[in-house]
Amino acid sequence: MRADKIWLDGKFIDWDDANVHVCTHTLHYGVGVFEGIRCYRCHDGKSAIFMLNEHIDRFFDSAHIVQLDIPYTKEEVKQICKEIVKVNKFNECYIRPIAFMGDGQLGLYVKEFKVRLAIISWVWGAYLGDEGLANGIRAKVSSFLRHHVDSCMTKGKICGHYVNSILAKREAIAAGYDEAIMLDTDGYISEASGENVFMIRKDVIKTTPLTSILPGITRAAVIKLAKDMGYEVKEERFTRDELYIADEVFFTGTAAEVTPVREVDGRSIGQGKPGPITLKIQKKFFEVARGMHEEYRDWLTYI
User: Fold this and answer.
1) DSSP readout, 110-152?
2) In this structure, what are the phi and psi dihedrals at residue 88, rounded to the nearest 5 degrees?
3) What pLDDT, on the 0 to 100 scale, is given for residue 187?
């Protein structure tokens, strides 16, 4: 995880110089917002950022939720995202915009503060591993619940929220699994520590509705692709035992892309390997992300 340059507060600087003060407010209290975006090398050799417009819209939505006024326009942020890929001479990479409260005052309530913006890029392979992407991962339902919608703003990709995810992921890894699945406060499947959850039973695809979950960009893309491929997709609640008896389960996310799940809580999912529908959707997703389908060209921003 390293690149030559990071963009911080209006200019590109060397990676080692991108530092903040120890009294940075977000470091203490977690009020900041970020995005995860991928740039893919397409089949024609060009590079394109996947769903850049949607990611930056969500970035600004998240900032609005926590009342951070990003001191740049959406178009300026998009342009910086494109420029950092070129500056670091990447063909493929992960892009991380982050807006956060700077230093100056500490305390829960600060009336006046500077909002700082950084945009980082680095080469990041399969988030849950190449083996997991190909053969599926093992997941555990966590003892940690996803945030209640009235205790945290679940539609924002907010820095401090991810303590919840970290605790759940650590628990799953310590128990010998690859990833955690989290329930909502009513006991239904919510999402994984950093991914949305899909299940398939009798050729019907289900995914958690937009209640307690982050509205995933990859989730929305996969719903559209699956419907265009002729599958029935339902956005409705389901329980952990319904997940156990699914024919197929998979995760979606910018980092995780489309990752099959072969086991949940010691129970094999289907045949204990990636299922045929999951593999078809995964294949179509990567083809689209790499510019192989003209009808989805507007999902790509070419560098």
Assistant:
1) -SS--EEEEEEEE----TT-HHHHHH-EEEEE-SSPPPPTTTS
2) -90, 0
3) 97
Q: Which amino acid is at 101?
A: M
pLDDT tens-digit series, residues 181-213: 999 999 999 999 999 999 999 999 999 999 999
Question: How far is C-alpha 136 from the geometric centre of its chain's CA atoms?
Answer: 18
The H or E element containing residue 186 is none
Q: Which three-class secondary structure string do you get for 74-110?
A: HHHHHHHHHHHHHHCCCCCEEEEEEEEECCCCCCCCC
Whether 303 and 93 have beta carbons less than 8 Å apart is answered as: no
Q: What is the pLDDT of residue 159?
A: 97
Q: Hey, is 222 helix, strand or coil?
A: helix
Q: CA 130 to CA 9: how far, in whole Å?
A: 35
- What phi and psi, each to the nearest 5 degrees, are found at residue 21? -70, 150
**Which tokens go with 129?**
């591993």
pLDDT digits (tens, 9 = 90+) for 233-283: 999 999 999 999 999 999 999 999 999 999 999 999 999 999 999 999 999
Catalytic residues: 155
222: left (phi over 0), alpha (psi -120 to 50) or beta: alpha
**Which pair of structure tokens corresponds to residue 274?**
């990636």
**Backbone Cα Rg of the chain:** 19
User: Chain centroid to CA 288: how far?
Assistant: 18
Place of tokens 């303590």: 163
37 SS3 class? strand
Q: CA–CA separation, 197 vs 219, rounded Å?
A: 9
